[in-house]
Every structure is written in C-alpha cells, then in structure tokens.
Amino acid sequence: MEHHFRRLLDPERKKFEDPEKFIPSLLKGDEVVADMGCGPGYYCPVLEEHSRMLYCVDLSEKAIEMTRSRVKRDSTTLLNESSDHTSIPSSSIDVVIFSNSFHDMNPSTVYKEVLRILKPSGKVIIVDWKKDAPIGPPVDVRMSKEDYIRVFKDFDLESEFTPGPYHFGLVFKRKLQS
Question: Hey, what long-range contacts does 7-11 have (CB within 8 A, 24 or more apart)?
Fold first, then answer.
C-alpha cells in the first residue's frame, strides 16, 4: 500500500495531471475545502494555497501520515476517517473535491455526507479517469460524467474542465432548496 501511495506522489504524474494548472481557476481562495479520499496528499499543497481552510480526509492511516509531511499551514486539518462519516461540522464546507477517489467509495453514503457537510451554496469538484484512458483504475470501477450527474441529483452541473489527457473534470453547484 505504501508503494502505491508513493507512486501517487511521483513527480511524473504532473505531466498528465497537474492540479496547479486547474485548481487556481476553480477556487476563490477564501473557501473552506474538503479533499475527500485525499490519499497521500497529492492535491493538498495546491488546495492549501487556494483555500482559507482545508480538511484532508482518508480512511488509510498511512495516507494521512504521508499527507502530514506535505501540509504547510495550521489551518489544514487531517482526518483519518471514512468519507461517508466524517467529524466535519454540518454546513461548514464551501467546496468538496474528489480527485480519483469517489469511484472507490460507497456512492449513496458518501453522497449523504456531502449533503450534510456542504453549505447550501456549496460546490463539488470531481476529477476522475476517462473510461478510455490507457492508465488508471480498472475500467469497470470508473465512472462517467453521466454516472456523476445521476449520483449528484441535488446539484446542477455548473461547468466542465480538462485536468489532463486521461481525466475529466466536473463542477457541481448545489441546487437552491425551495
């Protein structure tokens, strides 16, 4: 497992998935962000730089340990917890991000947790593998844009972006409750 996490931090990854190229345009800089399924913290430095406060959540203790070495700010909280049941306060998060992680989670319980922690005006950013990418997780676990639209039914697809040649990016905005 540690080898797998170390591979996720390989500098070569920047060639096809560089969060510094797309995260700054997706965040305002003053938001509270939750990185769900953060793994060893590949996204954490850039998310820290472009948020007011950051939660990095992962079920793996090893992943959280590796993330700790990448964290620079006191306003970042590391949570060794499952993404479907966090200690994050209700309605406290402006932006939830799932980078290559949601497809490994229980969609219905994690979705309920997102609804609980997200502010009424909150957003969800998805970065995930294209179905036809030559690298990445097994094709049968990958989710399509349509799969995400089905799961995030209380959200509007606000925009799409291209994180790199093998990934797609989606920004969902919570629908206003009537």
Answer: 8/39, 8/40, 8/42, 9/40, 9/41, 9/42, 9/66
